[in-house]
Each structure stands twice: as structure tokens, then as C-alpha cells.
Amino acid sequence: MLWVHIEKGKVQLREGALPRRKRGHALVRLLCAGICNTDLELLRGYYRFRGIPGHEFVGRVEEADDRRLEGRRVVGEINLACGDCDWCRRGLGRHCPRRTVLGILKHAGCFSEYFTLPEENLHIVPHRIADDEAVFTEPVAAACEILDQVRIPKGSAVAVLGDGKLGLLAAQVLRVHGAEVHLFGKHRNKLAIAEKAGVKGRKSGGRLPRAAYDWVVEATGSPGGLTQAVAMTRPRGTVILKSTVHGAVGIDTAPVVVNEVTLIGSRCGRFEPALKLLRSGKLRVREMISARLPLRDAVRGFDMAQRRGVLKVLLTNP
After folding, report:
1. Mean pLDDT, to the nearest integer, of 74-83?
2. Cα–Cα dist 60/10, whole Å
3. Which of 169, 172, 241, 272 could bridge across to 143 with cysteines, CB 3.0–4.6 Å?
4. What is the tens place of the pLDDT at every residue in 31-67?
5. Distance of alpha carbon 112 from alpha carbon 99, whole angstroms
6. Radius of gyration over every alpha carbon of the chain, rounded to an integer in angstroms
7. Closest CA to 285 of 156, 176, 177
8. Could you tell me if residue 39 is left (phi over 0), alpha (psi between -120 and 50 degrees) or otherwise beta?
9. C-alpha dihedral over 242, 300, 113, 45, to 10 degrees?
10. 142-265: CATH topology
11. Do the Cβ atoms of 227 and 251 come closer than 8 Å?
12. What is the Cα–Cα distance from 12 to 164, expressed in whole angstroms?
């Protein structure tokens, strides 16, 4: 079996035996996986990670206790909760203090020909959703999480900072919800993808609007994004933080306090609304694919994913 290993800033290919399937877990054969910004942060030292990364995938179940899953295409929620603590009993397993996380924290990721995941984490992919679309389920769910956390009335103006992968998805999800979305980014070609979906794109060079929005989604992936987002937010407005940045982020807290700005951290989301949106065909995800490479070319894939202007790089295992 072939898999990807990252450690101390290096990407390697390794080979070995198939993973052992625990009771209640499924053995999944990878079909397609996406390299995301979190994977790049892990490569740069986030969590002092070493091991098999990858958490955005679509695969086919090879073995499972539930035989109805075998042979089905699936996507999977990435948090493996303990199921026994107070957080889990409240239905918040994503915040379980004893959780492991696929390809991020103490559980081998999906950049591997085969991997395991609890059967309860798996969602069967509808036939109408192609592999190239299904692989976006996890980041689309993260974008949908915004609407689970914040009530944004239809027709409201919302700013999204960052025209990377998550920024584009957040902008499109909010637009489908009915918001008037203004996407600020640096790349004309990326903004054009969102504009085709009804989002108003704007180049972010120069002076940005100040105190102009009640809701601002920060998805720049840069340390300075939070300061920009706060400056664009009206008094008593809300900033939704989506960026995962390795290292400390400095910010002047005075504008946050004086203007009574609410800061909301936003991470993973439910897969059900994400799959529903993907099935509807209302999201332009295929246009976000910059390259498709076989898993054996993952070293080149990681190199490409770090280049300026590149969106989603997929690793395939047909």
C-alpha cells in the first residue's frame, strides 16, 4: 500500500501493509482526495505534525461491520469523538477533548491508498454527485457551518475576505442562502469563479471599506486577515474566523472592544447540508480544481498546491 508521509517540512512517499480495521470502523479505498490549506500548515509545522495527512476525500468502502456500506462511495466527517464525555452527550463531538482528527491529530489521514474511519462518520454519496464534486464535501460543510452559527437574514450584505478555496466556497454558500456577498481577493481569475455564481468580486489591493458590514467572513489564511476584517465591521457587527494560521496572530484589541465586535471561530460543519448543496448543482466547485494528479505524484502535488494562484489540487487513486 502506498501513502504520503510529511515530517519536518518534507513530503515523502512510503509503502507498507494495509491498516488494521477496528470494530465499528470501515476500511476505505481512496478514490480522490484534496490538498487543503490545513495540510500545507501541517507541512509548515502546525501541531508539530508527522504522519499521513489528508482529510478531504471520497472513497469506496472495502470492508465494514455494516455490510450495507460495502461497495458504496462515501465521504467522512473528520472528528473521531469518544462518545462518552459531556460534549459528546450534548451532540458536540467535534469539540470532544479526547477526539482524534483524520489526518490532523492522532489518526492517519486519507492521503493513502487505504485508510480507516468509524462507520458512524461516513456518509453515502448520492449517485448524482461526481467524485470531483464529492471531494469538496468537507470544506463545503465548513462553509455551511457559518449559517449554523450566525443568523444572517436573506438580502443582507456580507463581506468575505480571501479568494482562496474556503473563501470561494463560503461566498457561494452564503449567496445560495440569499445574502448579498462581496468577495475581496487578489486574483482576478478566482474572483471570476464567484462572480459566475452571483457573488460581487472586488480586488483587495488598496484601501478596503471601513465599518461597512454587519458580517465579515475572514478566510484570507494570513496573519493580517483578522485586523482587516475587524476594520471592515460595523459597531456590534460580527467577524467569522475561518483561517487556520500556524503561529500567533497579533491584533490591536481596542477596535474590537470599543466597537463591541463579536468574534466567532468557525471550523467543521455538518455534512448533510453540504451534500444537499452539492447535489443541487448550485456550487461551482469543478472550476476550483487546478490540477489532478495520481497519489504517487503527491510530492509534486504539494509543491503545486503552495504556488501562488493555485486552488484545489486533487490526488486520485482510480
Report:
1. 96
2. 29
3. 169
4. 999 999 899 989 988 888 999 999 999 999 999 999 9
5. 21
6. 19
7. 176
8. alpha
9. -50
10. Rossmann fold (3.40.50)
11. yes
12. 26
- How do residues 107-163 score in pLDDT, each as one tens digit? 999 999 999 999 999 999 999 999 999 999 999 999 999 999 999 999 999 999 999
What is this structure's pTM?
A: 0.94
- Are the C-beta atoms of residues 275 and 282 closer than 8 Å to each other? no
**Residues whose CB is less than 8 angstroms from the CB of residue 113 and which lie 6 or more positions away in sequence, other chains included:** 1, 2, 3, 29, 30, 295, 317
End-to-end CA, the chain: 14
Domain extents for the chain? 2-136+285-316, 142-265
C-alpha cell at 217: 467572513
Q: Residue 48 burial by CB count (10 A; 0-12/13-18/19+): exposed, middle or buried? A: exposed
Q: What is the CATH number of domain 2-136+285-316?
A: 3.90.180.10
C-alpha–C-alpha distance, residues 164 and 171, integer Å:
11
C-alpha cell of residue 206: 488598496
Whether the CA torsion 208, 263, 214, 95 is positive or negative: it is positive
The SS3 of residue 16 is coil
**Residue 185 neighbours by CB under 8 Å, 6+ apart:** 162, 163, 164, 167, 191, 201, 202, 203, 204
Q: Which helix (H) or strand (E) holds 185?
A: strand 180-185
